[in-house]
Write a structure and sequence with these properties.
This protein has 144 residues and is mainly alpha-helical. It has two domains: 62 residues; 65 residues, Orthogonal Bundle (Arc Repressor Mutant, subunit A), CATH 1.10.10.10. The protein contains eight helices and no strands. Helix 6 packs across helix 7. The two termini are 15 Å apart.
Length: 144
């Protein structure tokens, strides 16, 4: 991670922590107020659950967001590893989460042909599983 990304993550965590602290303070304050007796406890539980769900989604999107910009694939790594154009197409679809059947349908080949391409990719990338292949290709800058 770069310096700017580290600052963004730290700032997000600080904002999240402060929001939780304010929420805890408000809950303590409400405990001593009469408002707790006006509405049922279930309403407060639902409101708190919705608040933390929304907050969790916001924090997750901020922390897990990938930088948006142009991607320049590492052609030298692709050439060095000897990955063919078709194998690269399979790798791209694999990174998008497609199954063998879906990859085969998009590339107009059988699932067995997809398995053959994957076996070659695993050998060239020196991995054993789909997730490892995607992680290794990303680490080498071959796919975004």
């Amino acid at each position: 991670m770069g310096q700017g990304r580290d600052r963004t993550v730290k700032r997000t965590i600080i904002i999240y922590s402060l929001t939780v602290a304010v929420g805890a303070f408000l809950l303590q304050w409400l405990e001593y107020r009469y408002a707790v007796h006006v509405f049922s406890t279930e309403i407060y539980i639902v409101l708190i659950a919705l608040l933390f769900t929304a907050l969790g989604v916001w924090v997750g999107r901020r922390i897990a967001a990938r930088p948006r910009g142009s991607f320049d694939k590492n052609v030298r790594a692709i050439d060095y590893l000897g990955i063919s154009e078709r194998e690269y197409e399979v790798l791209e679809l694999l990174a998008k989460g497609h199954s063998n059947r879906e990859i085969g349908e998009q590339l107009f080949v059988s699932p067995n042909t997809v398995k053959t391409h994957l076996a070659h990719l695993y050998d060239k990338l020196e991995v054993a599983r789909r997730t490892q292949a995607v992680d290794r290709a990303r680490a080498l800058g071959m796919i975004p």
